Amino acid sequence: MDLDNKVVLITGGSSGIGKAAAGKLLECGANVVICGRNVERLESVILELKPSPERFHAVQADITKRDEVDALIASSLRKFSHIDVLVNSAGRGYLGSFLETSDDLINSLMEVNVQGAMRVTRAVLPSMMEQKSGLIINMCGILGVKTIANAAVYCATKHALLGFGNALAQEVRRSSIRVTNLCCSGVDTPFWDTIPGKPRPEMLLTADDVANEIVHIVGAPPHTIKNQVLLQHTAHQL
Question: Any idea what the CATH number is for the domain that residue 111 is in?
Fold first, then answer.
């Protein structure tokens, strides 16, 4: 798929789905910006992908901080002059009893998974509206459309992100900006590192599976829109 000259900004691009998507998009000719909180991880992505400096930009940024998000967008626009696609991939996972979930953890999940995505989207929208084109991909996960026990707070964040994306799509469509909610079943990424009960690897999607879907969404004709994509492993369906 030819994505020459498209500029894609990926939050949470230093690991998991975000890193895999960066690699696939670079292979297809896109210019890619990734952000993450950890400098060492960002540097490791550069060492692994070996991207051309002219087509790649890595920025340390915490999406829970307004000033860092503003600096991320400004740096991206200085580098590439425009942003065609935003992939809201940064997120925090958690599974556990609701009664045992602290206020601090609830606030953290909401801050990263919902408000962080909103914050970056709000920062990038003015440039997309000015150019009258753009695509926003929200990684809502399967728990944005389904629910399971011991995931009440996490489900709430992903349902909120889905609702945000659906409403935003109606608000910005006259500026030719599209919004896609990508809902995937479990993916074999570092998401599970601190979460008990990880399914067997053969039941999980790979980060490359999801990255390939992101490439297809980005490469779709501009007069079409995938409002919501549900991608599941055949052995792990909800």
Answer: 3.40.50.720
Average pLDDT, the chain: 96
| Other CB atoms within 10 Å distance of the CB of residue 96 | 16
94 has catalytic annotation: no
The CA distance from 174 to 234, in Å, is 37
Catalytic member of 154, 164, 191, 192: 154
Q: Is residue 76 part of a domain?
A: yes
Q: How far apart are CA 218 and CA 126, in angstroms?
A: 20
**The residue type at 157:** T
pTM of the model: 0.96
- The per-residue DSSP string of 32-67 comes to EEEEES-HHHHHHHHHHH---GGGEEEEE--TT-HH
The amino acid occupying position 64 is T
Taking only the tens place, the pLDDT of each residue in 34-60 is: 999 999 999 999 999 999 999 999 999
Q: How many domains does the chain have?
A: 1
Residue 110 inside a domain? The answer is: yes
Owning domain of residue 175:
7-231
Q: Residue 124: enclosing H or E segment and its boundaries?
A: helix 117-131
List all residues 6 or more positions away from 45 whose beta carbon is below 8 Å from its beta carbon.
13, 14, 19, 22, 34, 58
